[in-house]
């Protein structure tokens, strides 16, 4: 679903990327990364504003898609957080695991505008 010619895919992907980077910057994962948390918190706030505007003008089917994807992202982030904090014992292991996920989702974020083609 789209509003005019805009699809929510890039905004949803960027929100997920920002959430993962915020988790990466937390002291329990990667100590002394307050700038990563600050910058990505601002990015997440901007994406949530964009998604709110999209949500406001989207038809019901588009709204359901946005809510579904955001719920799935939050669930995924919860699983990543639980697995990372329980299975990885050192900061280095946690940083590596979450960092790899951040890079993967960063690539997906930059590829997401291609969904309009």
Automatic annotation (TrEMBL):
Keyword Transmembrane (UniProt): yes
Location relative to the cell: Cell membrane
Entry GO CC: plasma membrane
Membrane topology: Multi-pass membrane protein
Keyword Cell membrane found: yes
Residues in the signal sequence: none
Pfam families referenced in this protein's UniProt entry, alphabetically: MtN3_slv
Main location: membrane
UniProt keyword list: Cell membrane, Membrane, Repeat, Sugar transport, Transmembrane, Transmembrane helix, Transport
Name the UniProt record assigns to this protein: Uncharacterized protein
Taxonomic source organism: Gossypium gossypioides (Mexican cotton)
């Amino acid at each position: 679903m789209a509003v005019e010619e805009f699809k929510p895919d890039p905004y949803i992907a960027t929100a997920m990327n920002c959430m993962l980077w915020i988790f990466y910057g937390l002291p329990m994962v990667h100590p002394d990364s307050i700038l990563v948390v600050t910058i990505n918190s601002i990015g997440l706030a901007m994406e949530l504003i964009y998604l709110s505007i999209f949500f406001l003008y989207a038809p019901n089917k588009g709204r359901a898609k946005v809510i579904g994807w955001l719920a799935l992202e939050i669930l995924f982030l919860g699983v990543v957080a639980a697995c990372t904090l329980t299975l990885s014992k050192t900061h280095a292991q946690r940083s590596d695991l979450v960092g790899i996920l951040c890079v993967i989702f960063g690539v997906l974020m930059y590829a997401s505008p291609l969904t309009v083609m």
